[in-house]
Hints:
Blueprint: H1 4-18, E1 28-30, E2 39-41, H2 43-51, H3 55-62, E3 69-75, E4 79-84, H4 86-97, E5 112-117, H5 128-146, E6 150-154, H6 162-174, H7 198-214, H8 216-230, H9 234-258, H10 272-284, E7 288-291, E8 294-297, E9 311-314, H11 322-336, E10 341-345, H12 351-363, E11 372-375, E12 380-381, H13 398-415, H14 424-444, E13 452-453, H15 456-459, H16 467-483, H17 498-508, H18 510-519, H19 524-543, H20 552-575
Parallel strand pairs: 5-6, 5-10, 10-11, 12-13
Antiparallel strand pairs: 1-2, 2-4, 3-4, 7-8, 8-9
Helix pairs in contact: 2-3, 4-17, 4-20, 6-7, 6-8, 7-8, 8-9, 10-11, 11-12, 13-14, 16-20, 17-19, 17-20, 18-19, 19-20
Bound molecules: arginine.
Arginine binds near residues 116, 121, 156 and 158.
Amino acid sequence: MLDLAQQIQQLLVPRFQEQDLDPTLAEVRRCDRPDLGDFQCNGAMAGAKQRKENPRALAEKLMPASELFASTSIAGPGFLNFVLSNEALSRRAQAIAGDPRSGVAVSAERKKILIDFSGPNVAKPMHVGHLRATIIGDSLQRIARFLGHQVTSDAHFGDWGLQIGLLITAVQDEQPDLPYFRPDYAPENNLPESPVTMEDLDRMYPAASARMKEDEAYRDRARKATAELQKGRPGYLALHRHFWTVSQVALNREFEALDIHFDLWKGESDVNYLIEGVVEECRRKGVSVPSQGAEVIEVARESDAKSVPPLILVSSEGSAMYGTTDLATIVERCKEVDPDLLWYVVDQRQALHFVQVFRAADRAGYCPENRLEHLGFGTMNGPDKKPFKTRAGDVIKLHDLIQTCRGKALQKMDEAGLAGDLSPAEKERTALAIGVAALKFADLCNYRMTDYVFDFDRFTSFEGKTGAYLQFQAVRVKSLMRNATPQDLEGQIVVEHGAERQVVLALDAFSGALRLAFERRAPHFVAEHVYTLAQAFSSLWTTLPLLKEADPAKRASRLQLSRAVLAQLEIGLRLLGISVPERM
Length: 584
Ligand code: ARG
């Protein structure tokens, strides 16, 4: 099913070809000047330049005639403007209304995509960087799947670095008698329960990490423990498992609340079995070289504007580094999934790391660089424009962030006198849905590379460009639909009024927005789209009677249009990870 811009483009392409012009010049887009048309094509000007011809004269020759148009015009130096006929808009609306995919075709070129996103760490609280990675990555996996791509998502748990050695050291100091530290530890000594809770880890990690900065001997112990863990010391491995389990239980609570799911919950440690082979192979192929007791892969290129340091494959203590596990993970992913694309949704501050890893993977022959993409993003800032912190200056925990948003949503619902007739349980659920929508939409409505300032009050507001506003519009249509009888909806969509035209044009733009979101790996095109659609519907609602329209044919037309809006809003919001409550 082609959208309106594509249908117009199809009329233009042969006319451009007749004039010996490049058909890509026939690109059609929404008109910048809605008073002049619904769509426009700017190709006549570029074509005229190529042919050294008068652009307006060329535009005359290029202008197609079709019953799609109510009128066409040539403006300025040669803009082709098109006003769609009500019949063409009615047909398009009917097609979208009858399509469970709301007018969006499955992509012709289906790809296998692996998305690495969220990347939480064992025992470290998830911070705002992880929140953005989680929200953006999830939306990208939903968008790619909806377009028909074959997606595998992996949380890529950070569980194999120095932080684990540090925790082992800290636990040893608090509970030296645990069996895990005995040199003769054997699997039958493993305790069924973890010796530490998530709260313990949460408390111990920051303290140990602060101590490591000052206490060199302590740092050396942590490093040694890391190296021993990686070499497979059984007691440490068992302790590592416990850290893993308690952390995962805690993280899952957050992912459940956010309605975010992964196909794979692999960790850095899961590729430990590959590391030795990777190191050996890189050495044998001459890809890695010794450097000051360590082993590194040179990845600098002459064309680099800024110098790119080598990737450290093995540290001077003999440990695998962050880049090493990432490299080994690429090996595993290519073997097990063989994706066409590997997307890494990770904070832009790690851009250099990914340049190193991707180049190293390419050099070692593990994966061509053009399949590897780092999809970075900016920071979520506090009112001081610095990465969001609590009042005490700590990184804010995801759990607290979600709960604060839920609380604010509850407060706003009460203030607005909403949800009066909801049961307490439904009210709680709705507040969580609104709170989560606030978090997600605030994030996704900005282009991912842009930093933004987080503002609880503004983001949970029912007015403005917010998740709650969008949910509210959708809920409004739901209640409209509940009040309509099946007979109210019997008939065809017949577009007559300006407000109806705007709704159809908005509905029509969905597939283009999704295409762009996928091409640019940027969910904000979808966020923008749902907002525009909600606004178009809102003006329909205020300008024309819907259920109250006396003429049954008109009533049916408008209600069907409203139902199509609801369907598309729900799909669009779902692609952003936002659910629509039944009532609010
Ligand atoms: N755990 C890492 C961090 O907290 C993020 C992991 C991102 N993914 C990756 N393959 N490196 O910074």
